[in-house]
Amino acid sequence: MRPFELIPPIKDYIWGGTKLRDEFGKESSLERLAESWELSCHKDGVSVISGGEYDGMLLTDLIAAHPEVLGRNCGRFREFPVLIKLIDARDDLSVQVHPDDEYAMRNEGGYGKTEVWYIVDCEEGAELIYGFAEETDTDTFRRAIEEGTLLDIVNRVPVKKGDVFFIKAGTLHAIGKGILIAEIQQSSNTTYRVYDYGRLGTDGNPRELHIDKALDVTNCEPPTVRYGQPDKVNMAGMWRTHIAECEYFSSEKYDIYRSLTVGSLDTFMHILFLDGEAEIVYGGETVIHAKKGSSVFVPAGTDTCDIKGKCSIILTKESKGGN
Fold this sequence. Notes:
mainly beta, about 10% helix, globular
């Protein structure tokens, strides 16, 4: 099966901006384009195939008809395991936390969420929240929430383009205003909101908080995972940057200035174009003209295909399991 493009569901959250439309070519009648779900089989928004013999089909329907497109590695998961987004934060997101699989399955009936952020772009002075500044405990965490002093004990991190943050389930976090990120995550939409700056939702009421569940799942120690600028490796025709490897997914960034050959028997691949243009050549012919914002699915078992051009991409595939 040849590679194909995906059309993402668009989410209009109150903190979203317009960069996904203005800079990445996302189409929507919504005023705010907070998130585009570039690869999604989640019930809250499913990617749609664009072009080729399956044009207009939901990705979930294709997988149901042709499960072999996922490859062997996905067999250990009950559901499609990965969700990839572009997120444009015109304003601060809420301070929040996600549960792990065990807690989420027991309380929400679905996966928990471990995720990774790649900072695609950011305004000068932008920062995010990543865990606590110092080791604390659940009682102190609760008291800070109740007394309105939570922002005094969190770890604020200035960011720059190209930074990477691994957000393990249980890590308190928040994307700050002026940041545009690519997020690779488990296929989950479960979020426990802890603090929301006193904002009102579109219905005019304060947005719901989930304090008790957040207290159940939050790791009160400072983050131990390295974050910031990952190392780059110069390869023939490109630079490769390792983004993340965990039991759910493996992601690399490639800055291509000639070509990259991809394909796998074991797993599907997803290619998110962050910049530039390229042709995807399969079977000796160009099947996709990709540009900034393009989202491409490469089925497992696909004969190798070539990405030819000058572009920056994030390539994600299903992990073999383990860190």
